[in-house]
Amino acid sequence: MALTPINLIKHELIGLHAKVVKSTNASNEGVEGRIVDESYKTITIESNGKDKKIFKENVILIVELPDRKKVQVEGKLLLARPWERIKKRFPQY
User: Fold this and answer.
1) Residue 17's closest CA among 53, 59, 76, 70?
2) Measuring CA to CA, which residue among 20, 28, 11, 2 is closest to residue 74?
3) Which of 63, 66, 73, 83 could serve as a FRET partner for 33 with CA atoms 20 to 30 Å apart?
């Protein structure tokens, strides 16, 4: 299945470029880089050679797809292990 804005939340995020545009933790706003790891509640973004762990629940991200499209995603929708998100039902599906 190709990665599209519609099915992004059901795909693997590791390797995609992301930017935190809004966060309850002000120090996370503006963090930008490649997603290098993901767990149930966090994503790790490699930015300027350093890894920054960010809680999914507290952020809004802009994720760049391989075809250069940018998609804004509310972190709450990503709360799950990557392999469990595939099974999860979302309102638009």
Assistant:
1) 70
2) 20
3) 83
Question: Phi then psi for 16, rounded to 5 degrees?
Answer: -85, 155
For the question of whether the overall pTM of this predicted structure is more than 0.85, the answer is yes
pLDDT tens-digit series, residues 21-57: 999 999 999 999 999 999 999 999 999 899 999 999 9
Q: So what's the architecture of 8-84 in CATH?
A: Roll (2.30)
The first and second tokens of residue 7, run together, are 């099915």
Q: Enumerate residues 6+ apart whose C-beta is below 8 A from 90.
A: 9, 10, 77
